Amino acid sequence: MIEQLTITTTPKYNFPQENINLELPRTFLELSIQSIKTSEKTFNLNNLLNFQQLTITTLENLNCLSAKVIKLKPKPDNSIVSAIDVSSIKLGETSTGFLLAIRGAIVWKQNVNYRYLRIGPFLFHVTEENKQRIYNVLRKAYFNFAHQESKAALNITSTPNIMQMQSRLTGLLEKWLQMTLTTAAKNTLILWDGSLTVGTPETPTRVVESILQTARKRENMIMAFSKATRLRLMSHRITDLLVKSRPPCLLELKGYSNVNKPIRLLGEIYVARLAKGNCTFRLDIDKEIPSEQRIEAVEKLLGNDIVSHGYPETLRLAHILCTFTANEVIAMQRFIAKKAGLNIVSQPNIRRILFGPYGKGEVDNF
User: Fold this and answer.
1) How many whole angstroms separate alpha carbon 79 and alpha carbon 59?
2) What is the pLDDT of residues 239-288, one digit of tens each?
3) What are the residues whose beta carbons fall under 8 Å from the beta carbon of 29, sequence distance 6 or more?
4) pTM value?
5) Would the CA dihedral through 65, 71, 73, 74 be positive or negative?
6) Residue 107 in 3-state DSSP?
7) What sections of the chain are H helices per DSSP?
């Protein structure tokens, strides 16, 4: 059973309102309204195929010293399993920028019930003129970068290129959700989509370190699942190394070192094959946690959540609930057009104009 809850009615899960800093979502909403009011009178529709942003954090030039297969045994103990995911979509373009929607979801399973909380969608009109203000105001709203970095680091030179704003704003909301859940929950298995690789603008090292430290204090276990990775061992992609092993099992990869500073690995890397089938995943777990506790956490996950195709159901539901459907995209486009008084025009297909029936590409495949 899946049950929707609001942020003010979560009596069956430890989400005490006083522990949740709501400044960031309030700021998201305020900036969203302000930015939409600056939209021009027309905007071009984006094609409805492949409109979701795909973000894959990868590392190269890594060396692994050893690998070991670990057999797993499910441990059902009524542990709470929770998951977080965030997605964003570009709704259309204007003459000065683009329209963006961002949404996040938290799903948790307690006993036999799945419950979820959606945050958003937040709509933004991002332009060269307002990108600095949007980015810096949101960055300060929750993470309070002002006391961690010099004022010079917060000026226009630190503002991303306008084409990077989608991933940066998505990362801000994702990190806020991760910190909020980690602070509110206790003795919970918390699943992330991605990895524990840090040092990129979307995954600031100090922010992720702070989240992991909070998780350890509150006896939470953070596990990050990656559906795609470039990591290799002896020229083989690591997710191909467990194909012949009997599930459920893990491949523990020891001694990964990285020379691509400032990129760092905050987790021990495993390959997880948790159910029958050909699906294996990269799994990162906080390296500050003892190895026995990391393995036990995966066994608790197997015992307390559905793991279809080797992927936890809570994380699958979080992805589904935050992902935008084609109908939602159309609804948001019409909503913006009505509220802001915009005229919607279709963007001309340049490839089709130039090459006729030979102008194939991503925009022609639906």
Assistant:
1) 32
2) 888 877 888 999 888 766 654 677 888 999 999 999 888 888 999 999 99
3) 122
4) 0.80
5) positive
6) strand
7) 23-37, 131-143, 165-184, 205-217, 291-304, 313-322, 326-340, 350-355
pLDDT at 52 over 80: no
The answer to whether the beta carbons of residues 100 and 172 sit under 8 Å apart is: no
User: Of 72, 51, 42, nearest to 283 (Cα)?
Assistant: 72
What would the two tokens of residue 225 be?
């699942």
C-alpha distances out from residue 349 to 45, 262, 334, 364, Å: 11, 41, 21, 9
pLDDT tens profile 208-239: 999 999 999 999 999 999 988 877 777 778 88
- Domain boundaries in the chain? 2-364
More reliable by pLDDT, 179 or 38 = 179
Q: What is the 3-state secondary structure (H, E, C) of 244-268?
A: CCCCCEEEEEECCEECCCCCEECEE
- The Cα 334–Cα 359 span in angstroms is 29
- Residues ≥6 apart with Cβ < 8 Å to 356: none
Estimate to the nearest angstrom the gap between the alpha carbon of 334 and the chain centroid.
27
> Average pLDDT for residues 175-198, to the nearest whole number?
92
